[in-house]
Amino acid sequence: MIDFDTVELSNLNRQQFKLSQVDMPKVVALKQNLQEFNPFIEIKIHQVKVTHDNVKELFADADIITEAFDNPAAKAMLLDAASEFYPDKPIVMGTGMAGIHSSNTIVTKHPRENLYIAGDGESMGAEGLMAPRVMIAAGHEANMITRLILGDTEI
After folding, report:
1. What is the second-level CATH architecture of the domain 62-155?
2. Does residue 132 carry a pLDDT above 90?
3. CB distance 80 to 93 below 8 Å
4. Confidence of residue 134 (pLDDT cuts 50, 70, 90)
5. What distance in Å separates the CA atoms of residue 118 and residue 97, rounded to the nearest whole number?
6. Residues 43-80: tens digit of each pLDDT
7. Mean per-residue pLDDT of the chain
8. What is the pLDDT of residues 105-116, one digit of tens each?
9. Is this structure's pTM higher than 0.85?
10. Distance (Å, rounded) from C-alpha 118 to C-alpha 106?
11. What is the CA radius of gyration of the chain?
12. Domain boundary assignment for the chain
């Protein structure tokens, strides 16, 4: 897991953190939470901001690259860099999940080989990020990742 940020109070409505984890590095808090579910898994964490210059190093050992950024420019940068350095690795991303729009518009698309995008692909969410849509898109991403691990590349 890679993230430079710390848990903020404003994250609690849509991210799986606890009030006691506010101000904790997100990667430390998420590792802690995941290991409460399964203490037998190995989780490597990097508290660093993902940039074009470090994508090659950070994702070298990844079988699947998964994105959960809330910044459109960061999403585009990761897609460009991952496609450049790792054109054969699957990339699972989310986009268009903000706002109070219908949750029924969130789907997983396969726009090109090795790229899977969960969301509605268009909602800008002037109202802000809303937990239900974010969690549904995250569920789509998790489902696609599980399918890829099992060797199913179709949506």
Report:
1. 2-Layer Sandwich (3.30)
2. no
3. no
4. confident
5. 8
6. 999 999 999 999 999 999 999 999 999 888 999 999 99
7. 92
8. 999 999 999 999
9. yes
10. 7
11. 15
12. 1-49, 62-155
CB 77 within 8 A of CB 67: no
> How far apart, in Å, are the Cα atoms of 140 and each of 38, 80, 135, 146?
21, 22, 9, 10
Classify 44 in phi/psi space as left (phi over 0), alpha (psi -120 to 50) or beta: beta
Position 29 scores a pLDDT of: 98
| Token reading at 136 | 């549904």
